[in-house]
Write a structure and sequence with these properties.
It is a single chain. This protein is α+β, with helices and mostly antiparallel strands and 366 residues long. It folds into two domains: 188 residues, no CATH class; 80 residues, Alpha-Beta Plaits (2-Layer Sandwich), CATH 3.30.70. The chain is built from 16 helices and 14 strands. α6 packs antiparallel against α9, α7 packs across α9 and α8 crosses α9. The longest helix is centred in the last third of the chain and has 18 residues. The two termini are 41 Å apart.
Length: 366
């Protein structure tokens, strides 16, 4: 069994994630290659595409949202993802077990759902949403007219858990704002969900974007269980990690030499490359893992990579016609790496605010 060093695993991951060099791909193609981008906040995917693609412009993704080529929908791990229309129909039925578990255990809503006919509530919600998109508050209020003894927010949560609800524009359209309003995926996309989606395809897609990886990694990313039996049906290469774990991969997937240079890269909040592994050692030290996952309220900051490793956070502050990028290293950083971060940070500022009269990169103490 071949052995992969941690650095070799890191370089393979960066290659799959288009972080070794920017790719000449379209936004929709990239979103599909990545099997979606985590998107509970509206604009991080724009920055995630900027850091991966050659000459990416926000209007490309904004237009794809308006044209219904991509959608925002709850999927892996029960979190909102930006995915292609085809992947919304493929992935949403696969992750229904996650939604079912949440309906029975959700700390805010589960107690309000005891004894409730969930399919009946969902069907009522489907009829209501067929008329027009509704916010969760609006949907809950209408459903509460039918179930006046139930909590409106909990009724809206039933709809979210049973139905494939997408968040419709102008939410998440660059340069615009809008409340989170929902439609069913079937109505919005004018196509049915996949009747029998193949979980083996899910594993293959994950490995193409995140591999080499263990079964535990796939399950952490997806939120699904019992994927070992699925992986065992596939023709995969098997490697051993430095610490003796089994890593699976597609036979012909790229695995660059471990000495391949990795440029500095700015990642958006909640980037999936940091969240999609049971063992996160390929991307960060244990100290930095604790710092990242110890943030208040589970709100992850924008982060940056140096030599392929998580090394700090970043934040943008806009004031009228000026914008500031504050970079906070979490470890000692060389002058060479700081210079590279400053140059890349300047490009980030040009992307984020091309109209700004002044742009400044500041390095703060970590």
């Amino acid at each position: 069994m071949d052995r992969l060093t941690r650095r070799a695993v890191n370089r393979a991951t960066l290659a799959r994630q288009l972080l070794l060099e920017r790719a000449p791909r379209t936004a929709v193609d990239t979103v599909e290659h990545l099997v979606g981008m985590q998107a509970q906040a509206p604009f991080p995917p724009y920055y995630g595409l900027w850091t991966r693609l050659v000459d990416f412009r926000p209007a490309e993704l904004a237009d794809a949202l308006v044209d219904r080529q991509v959608v925002r929908i709850v999927l892996m791990r029960g979190t909102v993802h930006l995915v292609s229309a085809a992947d919304a129909c493929f992935l949403r039925p696969l992750v229904q077990p996650i939604m079912d578990r949440d309906l029975g255990t959700n700390a805010l809503h589960a107690r309000h759902l005891v004894g409730l006919d969930l399919p009946k509530v969902a069907e009522a919600a489907r009829r209501i949403l067929a008329e027009r998109p509704h916010t969760a508050k609006e949907l809950g209020a209408v459903l509460a007219e039918l179930w006046p003894d139930r909590e409106p927010n909990a009724l809206a949560h039933v709809a979210r858990g049973v139905l494939p609800l997408v968040q419709v524009p102008p939410r998440a359209v660059w340069g615009r704002s809008g409340q989170t309003a929902y439609h069913t995926a079937e109505h919005w996309l004018d196509r049915p969900l996949d009747a029998a989606p193949d979980p083996a395809r899910l594993v293959v897609r994950y490995l193409a974007a995140f591999g080499p990886a263990s079964v535990a990694d796939v399950q952490t990313w997806s939120g699904l269980t019992r994927l070992r039996e699925v992986a065992d049906t596939l023709d995969l290469r098997v490697f051993t990690s430095e610490d003796g774990r089994e890593l699976l991969d597609l036979p012909d997937a790229p695995r660059p030499d471990e000495d391949t240079p990795a440029p500095v890269r700015f990642l958006p909040e909640f980037d999936n490359i940091l969240l999609s592994y049971a063992d996160r050692g390929r991307m960060m030290s244990d100290e930095h893992r604790k710092r990242l996952f110890g943030v208040k309220n589970g709100v992850f900051p924008g982060t940056f990579l140096v030599d392929g490793q998580l090394r700090g956070s970043w934040r943008l502050t806009k004031q009228r016609k000026s914008i500031v990028l504050a970079i906070t290293p979490w470890a000692r950083t060389t002058k060479k790496d700081l210079a590279a971060l400053t140059r890349e940070g300047g490009r980030l500022l040009e992307f984020a605010a091309p109209e700004a009269e002044t742009r400044d990169v500041q390095v703060l103490d970590g």
